[in-house]
Each structure stands twice: as structure tokens, then as C-alpha cells.
Specification:
mainly alpha; three-stranded mixed sheet; two-stranded antiparallel ribbon; 5 strands; globular; binds zinc ion
Length: 603
Amino acid sequence: MVSSSDLPRWDLSNVYPSLESEELRKAFADLKTQIDGLDAFLDEHRVSRTQGASNQTSTDLKQTVEGYLDRTNVSIRLYSTINAYVASFVTTDSYNTTAKRLESELEMIGIRFHQQEVRFRGWIGLVPEALPSLLSNSGTAKDHAFYLRETIEQSRYLMSEPEEALAAELDLSGSNAWSKLQGTVCSQVMVNFELEGKLQKIPITALQNLNHDPNPEVRRRAYEAEMAAWESAREPLAAALNGVKGSKIIIDKRRGRTDSLHASLDTSRIDRETLDTLLSVMRESFPTFRRYFMAKAKRLGQDRLPWWDLFAPVGKSERRYSWVEAKKFVLTQFHGFDERLAKLAQRAFDHHWIDAEPRNGKRGGAFCMDVPGVEESRVLCNFDGSLDQVSTVAHELGHAFHNECLVGKTMLQTGTPMTLAETASIMNETIISNAAIAQAASVEEELAILETTLSNVAQVIVDITSRFLFEKEVFERRANSELSADDFCEIMLDCQKATYGDGLDERYLNKYMWAWKVHYYIPSFSYYNYPYAFGLLFGTGLYSLYRERGPTFVKDYEALLSSTGEATPAELAQRFDVDIHKPEFWRDSINVLAERIDRYGKL
Ligand SMILES: [Zn+2]
């Protein structure tokens, strides 16, 4: 075990001196002034859908667009900087009430950005024919050509201004309320469970974590207890899911979307053909993943894997990393790949960008946040000395590197879709796990490393497909009527059978996945599933190109990262002579994963 005192905490004192400081107070005041200023600017320039841009002269139009872009870039930068600073307290000290109050204040300010953006979108969308001359007359507009084109394109899918305003207001007591209810209900499900000879009352999340327990009896009992526990919570959850999906269907239809996938694809910046190709290559790979599930079942002495063994540990890794060793390992691997990445990581370690120490009041998991005001990032993780955590640090440093590649761009030039957001993190993870496998001291250790990576990727390929199929079916049926909790369970089971197939024991699937996976309940974004698979296979595919091309790949890779807010994934892939509409690229990615499955089966 790593002693906590060796683990670093992050330092943001170069951003603001403290939560109570005059500097932070002034930043809040500046932000409000800037946003009020933009509102006044939009009023003055009569930016609204009803007034329209069509009767403006081209000079007026140029001034309005430039004014909007410049002001928005400045205020989003300030907002993101304050937000990161406040979040650095909220996420590491849940008892900090000052930070929480400031966070809530920021949330309300955030809504105003959204309103201003919708207003601008509705207005500029009325004059798409003005864009070419605007781009040739204005350097600022030209620098934001991708943003402007997308904004105009997406303006087609707005309702009238009063309708949009009403929908936004009603959202708080509609979709958002349903979504919150799901969170509240799930966080309060408590289960009686016998652990270490004692009957205890534990939260359902703690129960779910027992799926990693080395004892098969504990895993089985935890699974059974979980399935029973959802029985008592399923009605409010089914109502919440009906509510979220029902509202989305109505809003999408009113906005002129063709179906439930339409808006999601546009947000992901991919077309249907790409998604279809991706999904078909994933489906094609199921037999490969089933080989993994079967090999795992065999190792655990089973014929077929029951659900509770999906995450069971296999192999043994005694290897423990101190923070210093973790740093050294990560830096050495990065040096072998890209000097600029290694330098960034060194800076992150030296300048206290990372908060690695687990402690009371700090949130779990890991994330990376951009602090644009100082052109730096900050990483949160909960380091426990395992290889898994070393890999997490590398993953988050991938996000930090991505931010670094975007330095110098305006905020509106950096908006990266979820499909591309994991590119650098997956690349780093792949580099780290390959090195760890190559250096494994024993078969048991290699097995443990392979198991961790494979159980993750199997989720992203196989389980994600089941979630996609589930959501699609739910949207289709919800359009005609509400669904019962039994309906949701039945659809879920069908989707798991269609994806896991004979990889799992059909008697023990998980019909309540819909109840607790928060992704189904996000009002603003449907199909929060395939972008994960896209991200994993896109990053892995780039890794496969790196293996082919060697060091010459690296400059192009950095250039790709610096353009993720200004081109679609298809355009970016094109630079590498890759057509993401065709299966070849995706198959190469699957092959990288299949090599590991083969190795796993042989060990
Ligand atoms: Zn990530």
C-alpha cells in the first residue's frame, strides 16, 4: 500500500489565491459584467429569430458576428477558469460549503451562456447565404468557419424562440426532474448483506463493487441481492425513464429531427453511415469476445460465465507502485513515444497539477480539467499503487496533453465531440498497458494485466452494443405508449442475449442494467453509449497506425489533437488516408484487441 503522505495534492494558487480572495471575487464580477454586456450587445444588434439578420447590411452583420465571437470567447474562457478553480475544492472537499455555493452560482451563469448561444444560432441561421462573403470579409469569422457552419446547420433544428424558451424552463420540472429522481432513488437503495460473517446494511453501489470480489460465493450472493433490491425501486425508475425518453421524443419531433438518433449523431459529428459501419464491425467481433468470455469461464471452473463473474479477478499481480515509481514508469513510456507528451507529463508532475491522494471528502474516480486562464490542466485520481491506477494517471495525462495541443486556440475553436475526446487518453492507456504486459514478471501477472484491459474493452464493445440496441428499441416503443418495468427488463434481456450470445450463461443475465446506468437518463444527450466505442476504436486505430508508421506518425497525431474542435472525425481521419465509413480502419483496431484475447487464451 502506498502511504498517503507520499501522494501529491494539486495546487491552483497560480489561478487565484483563495476562495475568499479579492481576485476571485473580481473574476466573478467581471464574468457577470461580460455576460450582461453580451446580452446588451445582442439587444442592440437586434439578434433574435423574429427580427432576423436578413435586413442587416453586410457591415452590420460582420460587426455583430465578430462581436459575438470575441465576447463569447473571452467570457467562456473566464467561466471555465473560475469553474475549474471552484471545482478543485468541490471535488476534493465535499464539506466545503463556500465552494458549493460558488459552484451553484456558476451553474446559473452557465444557463445564460446557453440562452445567448441559442439566440445567436436562431438569428444567424436565417441568413446562411451570407456566410461565404462573411468568411472572406472577416478574419475572426474565417478563424471560426467550422463553428459558424455547424451553428447555421444546427439552427434548422430549433423551435420558435418562445417555444425554445418555454421548453428550457419546463425542462427543470420535466426531464431534469426525472433525471434527478433516478439519481436520488438509486443513491438511496440500501441492501441487507452478509459480509465477513456480519449482516450489514450497505448502499447498492457498494454491493455492485463486490462483483470484483475474489470470492465467487460473495459475487453470486451480491448479484442475487442486487437483482432483488431493484424489485422494490423499479417503479419510480421506470416512470423516470418513461419521462426522460417521452419528453425527448416530443422535443426532437418539434425540432424537426428525423428520429431519436439524429441529434445524437450531429452532436457526435458523425453520419449514419459511419455509425452503421462501426456497429457492424463491432458485431463482427462478437465471436472474438465470446472466446474471451469462454476462456475466462474456463479459468474460473465454469462452463459458461454467469453475470456475477464478468468482473471477477483472474491472475495475480503483486506489483505495487510507489508514486515515484509510477511517475518514472509513465515518463519512460511517454519518452519512447512522443517527447512533447513526456515534457507535458513532467511539467504536470513538477508543478503539482495532479491530486493523487485519496482522502475523506474527496470524490472517487478520476478526471482531467482544463484551466484555460493559465493554459494548464489539473488531474484528479485516487492512487492506490495498482497498475490500474498508473494507467489511469496516464489516461488523464492524455486529456491534459490534448488540452496542451489546443493551447492558442479560442474557446469556440476547441469544442471537441465525445467521439474524439478520448483519442489521446486511449493512446496513452494503450502505450502503458503494452509496456506493462511486456515487462510482466510472471504469467500470473501478465494474466492479471490482460484481464483488466480485456474486461474493460469487452464492456465497451459488447455491453455498449447491448445498451445501444436497448435504447433504440425503447425510443421506438415509447413513441407509441409508456413502457412498464417488465417491458424494460424484457428488452434488456433480449439485447444482452443478442450481444453476449453464448459468451454468457443465459440464465444469469442482468435485466436491471437500465435501472441504474445514468446514461439512459441524461435529458440533453441520447445514446450516451456508442461514442465510447467510437473513442476506444478510434484511439486504438491510431495506435495501430503508429505501429505501422513509427515516429513519423507523431507530428500528424499532434496536429490531429489540435484540430478536434475544427473538423469532423471523418475529415481528421482523412488526413491519415483513413475512411471511417469503411470497415478496414475499425477492423484494424479490433485486431489490436484480438491479439490480446489470443494471448489471454494461450497463457
Ligand atoms: Zn477519459
